[in-house]
Amino acid sequence: MSNFDENEFGFPPDLSYRKYNITEDLSNEDRENLEIIHKTYKLQRTNINYSFNIYLINKYCKYNSLVNFWSLFHTLDGIVDLSDPDTSLPNSVHALQTAEAIRKDNKPDWYILCGLIHDMGKALYLAGKDEDGTSKTTQWAIVGDTFITGCDIPDDIVLPEYNILNTDHNNINIYTDGCGLSKCSVSFGHDEYLYRLLEKQSLPLEALYIIRYHSLYAWHSGNSYDYLMDSVDIKMKPIVKEFSSYDLYTKSDKVIKWDGILKDYYTKLVKKYISSDLMIQC
After folding, report:
1. Model-level pTM greater than 0.85?
2. Which residue range is the domain that position 161 belongs to?
3. Which of 11, 100, 171, 278 has the greatest CB tally within 10 Å of its CB?
4. pLDDT one-digit tens code per residue, 97-146
């Protein structure tokens, strides 16, 4: 494992990010965007309980089609995250913004690669279905803050007013204290999809944690799931939290354009840690 400082990472809180309240002073465009976000989260909380989560994993994590890494990456050119209030740019733009910010801070090369690939699981929309929330136009089982199914959903999650719509909430708790996140069923989305796609590649454990849990804000940026952590989760939490700051605070309208130097640099990183061709669901 790499050595990370477990103190605060120097990212100042920015209240202009992750704002979900629909207020009177909003423009019509901002109001419409937030209404789409609310609809996405309402459908996510309503539909993704423990049993439906297992259904989604069994359906979408059976990889059956070979695709080149860069072809898969550029499928992100065609999707904008319907749950994100902070950017309306394609996810491929955000991916490079994140990776370049991490590289600027001289982080390990696998960490930089995580910045580039962390949202690639959103490519599951290629095989998605409206009724499953996995299509380009629905997305409630692709994007958004995730939560652990099979137990209560915490109040400090985004838009907690929709928690009550979930049949697991205030109804069951199938986990024991200290069981570990790997024993928990986190709501399905691009994190879990990409984790299962890459878990047998050459990425270090820290990278796999980032990929699998970067949307689990109630864990890495709060204390709601601390009772479930095992010793590995405790070590990994500050790493995922740090990454989430890069993920969040690098979103802007400034587009970094690919050139030959960037493409060569990231192609070498991919070759070091990931197969040039990957099996996806298609």
Report:
1. yes
2. 32-280
3. 278
4. 999 999 999 999 999 999 999 999 999 999 999 999 999 999 999 999 99
